[in-house]
Amino acid sequence: MKNSRALSLFIGGFLIFGGLNALSQNAFNQNRTNVQRNNNAFNKDRKNNFNDYRHSLNSEYAKKLGGRWNNFNSFRGEEIPKDNSVPPIVWNGNKDKEKEDKQVVIEEVITPKKDNTTPSPIAPIKEEKDQPSTNLDFTFFGTPLSVRVPVGKTFRLGGTSAEAASQAWMQLSDPEYAALVSDCLKLKSKYRMGDWEYLLMLDALAKKLCPDPNSATFLMAYLYGQSGYKIRLANNDSGKLDMLFASKHSILRRSYYKLDGEKFYPFYGNGGDIYISEAKFSKEQPLSLWINSEPLLSESISNGRNRKAQKFPDMNYNVGVNENIIKFYDTYPSSYVGDNIMTRWAMYANTPMTKYIKDNLYPKLKASISGLGELEATEKLLNWVQTGFEYGYDDKIWGYDRPFFAEESIYYPYCDCEDRAILFTKLVRDLIGLDCILVYYPNHLAAAVNFNNPVRGDYIQYQNKRFTITDPTYIGAPVGDTMPNMDNSSAKVILLEK
């Protein structure tokens, strides 16, 4: 009897406990559902808040866009200094004669200041999943890209009046275009685009999507402005729309307008009398023309040019280059930072080589200098640049002084002193790991290398470092020799990145 009663109590307790447990589980599940519902509501509210905030910013901007556009006249862009480069000279020195140390006095040290501030979108962009879209495919310097655009809609600007611009800005601010803005920013991140590259990409996209030039210009301006860049819209008496962009750099050979003391450059126009809307976003940023990473463009490799060092037969290479990169570099505005035009050379010299060059030329160069000391390795690279590249004057070839990115010197048949110094310092930093500087004499640009062990010859002393002169235009000259007829009493130094 006791056993039977105990069994009954045990079964009853088990049933009660099981029931309570089931109730607890049901309560937990219900609570989890409520939490999930609350999270969904919170996320929806947050997305709506983001979209509402972005919409309010664009509404305020569009209202200002619909106001008065003021008349401005352009300022003439600063010209690139005339190319008076001294001709190359063949070294006739005595290779067995011991060099004497001669310190070059520094007249000026030029330190290019790089501002790495990256513009941010005017507000977080949250897509509405219920907005129908289709893919728009386009090509950018041989590289296939794709973005989402609204289904069945083609953006068309209704005119270039202030009222038409205001209405068009609000049209593009509708949720159906959020995916397009989002995709543009994703492409910028994926392909590690610099500011200028991103602007050109938006230009290519807008031209593919829009039926007329004014609509394409407006769309490009909208997308660039939404991305956080400082832009202004403008038109002229003939009804042509243009976009002005602010730059952290002074751009040469390009007219500009002054707004609130800041230079704005027309993307399409050549200056003149125009009407500009001064509508702006609070945290907008000017673009930067530094190239911090190689453009990730599809490869279209050129026929190689033979580059052979006279002194070293093993340094004989047939070198091709990605022509899509060359076409992109051809668009690049020549500019400088701060108040010193010589900083422009650092912009070219600090630009990374492409993966193709690093994968195809660099292994050959490394094999040629493998096992050598710093001086011997540098001598081989110096002679390769001195004798493997034909000299040409920019004013005769291009009509003006045009510095090359290192890759361009490998591609084009001719290069001058500044191009050789840019290429040589890039090779030494990448392949040997030594610090370099550019050295400017009147009408001539050379280089200097900081060896870990002192090397005799002409040198520059800067911040406890000894930089020995190396001149890629002094044909056949060894490390430490300065080209004749240079004023070797003083020089200007342009610092480069390591």
Secondary-structure map:
Layout: H1 2-65, E1 70-73, E2 89-90, E3 102-103, E4 105-110, E5 133-140, E6 143-150, H2 162-172, H3 178-190, H4 195-209, H5 213-226, E7 231-235, E8 241-246, E9 250-251, E10 257-259, E11 262-266, E12 273-276, E13 305-308, E14 316-319, H6 323-330, E15 335-336, H7 343-349, H8 355-360, H9 362-369, H10 374-388, E16 390-391, H11 394-397, H12 406-411, E17 414-415, H13 417-432, E18 435-441, E19 444-450, E20 458-462, E21 465-470, E22 474-475, E23 490-495
Parallel strand pairs: 2-22, 3-20, 4-23, 16-17
Antiparallel strand pairs: 1-12, 5-6, 7-8, 7-12, 8-11, 9-15, 10-11, 13-14, 18-19, 18-23, 19-21, 20-21
Helix pairs in contact: 1-2, 4-5, 7-13, 10-13
Structural commentary:
- α7 (343-349) packs across α13 (417-432) and α10 (374-388) packs antiparallel against α13.
- It is built from 13 helices and 23 strands.
- It has helices at residues 2-65, 162-172, 178-190, 195-209, 213-226, 323-330, 343-349, 355-360, 362-369, 374-388, 394-397, 406-411, 417-432; strands spanning 70-73, 89-90, 102-103, 105-110, 133-140, 143-150, 231-235, 241-246, 250-251, 257-259, 262-266, 273-276, 305-308, 316-319, 335-336, 390-391, 414-415, 435-441, 444-450, 458-462, 465-470, 474-475, 490-495.
- A 7-stranded mixed sheet has the order 3-20-21-19-18-23-4, with helices on one face.
- The model is unreliable at 1-24 and 37-47 (pLDDT under 50).
- With 498 residues, the chain is of the alpha+beta class.
- A hairpin with a 2-residue loop joins β5 and β6.
Shape descriptor: elongated
| Count of runs of 4 or more consecutive helical residues | 13
What's the helical proportion of residues? 25-40%
Give the beta-strand count. Answer: 23
The poorly predicted ranges are 1-24, 37-47
